[in-house]
Every structure is written in structure tokens, then in C-alpha cells.
Design brief:
This protein is an alpha/beta fold. Helices cover 45% and strands 16% of the residues.
Length: 429
């Protein structure tokens, strides 16, 4: 990994380098995505099936696009019992964490008869995109579906690309059933996003689409926003470790590589106040890479977006971490909780040497669908909030309205909205 002294110039160059990974930088794909969306919107199932055969080499039609109960039961027979037990254990932890996020309606009343409040309602339907092929992650099924389930979403529709034989990865199907998905369709890519956004003869339209995918999926979600809601436009994975001289270099190296193995665009960054730690981590990284299974991906990721930044002070390190606003932030310092209080921008924060990032990916309970590419400055992790909507409640009696109606009339007339003013004054003529 390249080592640099942290200063204004290196920080600026790093931020510019990381921005190259954003889905917004891939405008060349947008024309292809727009064509797929248009075709599915206009031709429905015909386009959906044609694109599935073109991209996934699977013959899908009205009779076999919906996953059957028999296919789900077959998946249960294929999945190892120990993996099933882990999925169930993770499910309970994720549900328990998200249950604490639930918000409820409220009302405030006053003696003059004014009632103000907020009504919280789950959205009616959600679509969950799940990658297929080599990127088959049952954990992501749980993370995307369970917040919707806890929120009270009635219809949770999952789409995922089939293999060439028209089958779905067994672990994905089992995780979907355990999480509470109501329907599963064998379709992926931008065409699946189009189907969820517009609806086709076979796939129903939904109110919101969540879930990760490749660049075509990310740009399709961006394009359909407005027809439906979306969670976010996900970029490549990233991790930032904030460490001082007390950190274990072997742990730091292992954690950096836990994200670098995702793909060649993944980012792994160490910011430390210890030059000695920086050197030791670099050595440990090289040793791990030489023997881990995804060696080629790891090396390209580190060559492209792997950095070790040596800061003069911890305050400088914290400032840089807040500028980068990483998806995952690990704090391995003498007093990680104090450092954490100074962090303002991060998707998920892991404190201490036994809080490794994969803990959050699988078993701790908080959601692993997190803001990337610096969007942690204004976005949050996927949560129950993403699957509810709020309505304001207003109820005034004559006695409550009378003292303030002249103020409303004055406001309306000042804006030239005489019908607004009239709507109030007629009640006191």
C-alpha cells in the first residue's frame, strides 16, 4: 500500500481520486440504461424476458418467472443446516436492532381545541434488488428486507437474476423466506428495476426500490427515482481505519482487506499518527494478500484506491476522516469512544480492536446498507424510516382559529393569494 504524509494536498488528491469511483462518473452507461428502461416501460413482459435471455442466458416466461413454493423448499434442502442456523440467528439480531428504530404517531392538544399531530404509515409495497451470480449475498437479503418487515410493509417483492438454467441461488431463496419476502421474481439488471418502477404483466409496480447492484442497476435506480422512491445510489465498498500506536497492525491489515476484496474499485484507507504502525500494517497487508483467495482483486483494489496516510496529530486524522466520510469507519485508538464523539461523517462506526467490519456485515444487527462515496455527509444507513411515511395532522376549533385568523389573512394577502385569505375570512363573516 502507498504511504503518504497527510496534508492539505494529499487529502485533496485522495478525495478527487475516490470520487472517480462514483456511479455519477459513468455517464457512458446511461444511454444503454435509458434504452432498457424505455423498452420495458413500453413493451412490458416481452422486453423483460428478452433482456433476461440476452444478459442471463435464461429462458424466462410468465409461467416460470415467479419462484414457486416447490423451488423454495428445494432450496431449503440444498442449504447446509449450519448455514440455515446462522441465517436465523442473524435474522433475530437484525430484527431486534431495527425494532428499536420504530417511530409512532403522536398528538398534542390545547385547551382551545387545537390538535396537532403526526400519523406514521408503512409504505404499501417495497421492491428489493438482490444481485445474482458470483455476488450472491444472503446477508444483504436480510438487511434489505427486515427493516421493511419491521416497518409493517405488506408486500415485499424481491427480484434477482437467475442462472442459465433459470435457478436462483439457494441461500438467497432461504434468506428471503426467513426474512418474510412475499414474492420473488427471476429477473435482474436494469430491466428488473424498470419492472419494479413501471410494472409489467408479470411483475407488479412497487412504491420503493432498495438493494445493491452493478453500475447498470445503480443508474437505473437513479433514472426511475420520482416514479418510485429509492434508498440510495450505491457505490463501491470502502473502509477507513483510524488508528494510533496502540493498534494491532495485524488486525488493521486484515480489516482493510475485508473490504478491498469486494472488487477492484473498493477503497481501503488507514489514517494513523504512528509511522511505525503504518510500516507494520503495510508488511502485514502484503503477507495476507499473498495467501488470500481473491489475491488479484485485492491487489488491484489496493493499487488503485489503497492508502496509508500518516497524520501529525489525531485531530488532523479525525478531520480527514470526516472529509472522506467513509462507508465503514473503524476506530482503533487508546480511547476510541472519545474519538468517536468527534466523528460527524461515517456510515457505520466500529469501536475497538474486536469490532471488526464483518461483524457489522453479518451478525451485530445494525444495517450494512450504508452511504458510500462521501454521501455519509448527508445520508444514513438503511433503516425502518426508509419504509414509512409521515402525515401531518391538523385540527382546529373556531376558538383556536379565531385569535390567529387575521395573521393568516395578512400572510396570504402579502403573497397575493386572495383565495387563501378568503378561505379563512368566510368562517368569520
Amino acid at each position: 500500500m502507498r504511504s503518504l504524509i497527510l496534508n492539505a494536498e494529499t487529502k485533496k488528491n485522495l478525495l478527487e481520486d475516490l470520487l472517480k469511483r462514483s456511479p455519477n462518473q459513468y455517464a457512458s452507461y446511461e444511454k444503454v440504461v435509458a434504452e432498457i428502461l424505455r423498452e420495458v416501460k413500453e413493451k412490458g413482459d416481452a422486453a423483460l424476458f428478452a433482456y433476461t435471455e440476452k444478459f442471463d442466458k435464461a429462458v424466462i416466461n410468465k409461467e416460470n418467472i415467479l419462484v414457486t413454493e416447490e423451488e423454495i423448499q428445494e432450496a431449503y434442502r440444498e442449504v447446509d443446516e449450519s448455514l440455515l442456523a446462522v441465517i436465523k440467528k442473524a435474522k433475530e439480531k437484525i430484527k431486534a436492532y431495527h425494532a428499536k428504530q420504530k417511530i409512532y404517531g403522536w398528538f398534542d392538544t390545547s385547551e382551545d381545541g387545537a390538535i396537532l399531530g403526526q400519523k406514521v404509515t408503512a409504505i404499501a409495497s417495497a421492491g428489493v434488488y438482490v444481485p445474482g451470480g458470483k455476488a450472491a449475498y444472503p446477508s444483504s437479503v436480510l438487511m434489505n428486507v427486515l427493516p421493511a418487515k419491521v416497518a409493517g410493509v405488506k408486500r415485499i417483492v424481491m427480484v434477482t437474476p437467475p442462472d442459465k438454467n433459470g435457478k436462483i441461488y439457494a441461500g438467497t431463496l432461504v434468506a428471503a423466506r426467513e426474512a418474510g419476502v412475499t414474492e420473488i421474481y427471476k429477473v435482474g439488471g436494469a430491466q428488473a428495476i424498470a419492472a419494479l418502477a413501471y410494472g409489467t404483466g408479470s411483475v407488479p409496480k412497487v412504491d420503493k426500490i432498495v438493494g445493491p447492484g452493478n453500475i447498470y442497476v445503480a443508474l437505473a435506480k437513479k433514472a426511475v427515482y420520482g416514479h418510485v422512491s429509492i434508498d440510495s445510489i450505491a457505490g463501491p465498498s470502502e473502509i477507513l481505519v483510524l488508528a494510533d500506536e496502540t493498534a494491532n497492525p495485524r488486525y488493521v491489515a486484515a480489516d482493510l482487506l475485508s473490504q478491498a476484496e469486494h472488487d477492484e474499485l473498493a477503497s481501503a484507507i488507514l489514517i494513523t499518527t504512528s509511522k511505525e504502525l503504518a510500516e507494520e500494517v503495510s508488511k502485514e497487508v502484503d503477507q495476507f494478500v499473498s495467501r488470500l483467495s481473491r489475491k488479484e482483486i485485492l491487489q488491484k483494489s489496493l493499487d488503485n484506491y489503497g492508502y496509508i496516510l500518516i497524520a501529525e496529530t489525531m485531530e488532523d486524522a479525525i478531520d480527514a476522516a470526516n472529509e472522506i466520510a467513509s462507508e465503514h469507519l473503524e476506530i482503533m485508538t487508546k480511547d476510541p469512544f472519545t474519538v468517536m464523539t468527534k466523528i460527524t461523517n461515517a456510515g457505520a462506526i466500529f469501536l475497538g480492536e474486536y469490532s471488526s467490519e464483518p461483524l457489522g456485515d453479518y451478525m451485530a444487527g445494525p444495517n450494512h446498507v450504508l452511504p458510500t462515496n462521501g454521501t455519509a455527509k448527508f445520508f444514513s444507513p438503511l433503516s425502518v424510516d426508509d419504509f414509512v411515511k409521515k402525515s401531518s395532522i391538523i385540527s382546529y376549533s373556531r376558538e383556536a382559529l379565531e385569535p390567529i385568523y387575521p395573521d393568516i389573512v395578512k400572510f396570504a394577502n402579502a403573497e397575493g393569494l386572495t383565495a387563501h385569505a378568503n378561505s379563512i375570512t368566510v368562517r368569520f363573516e
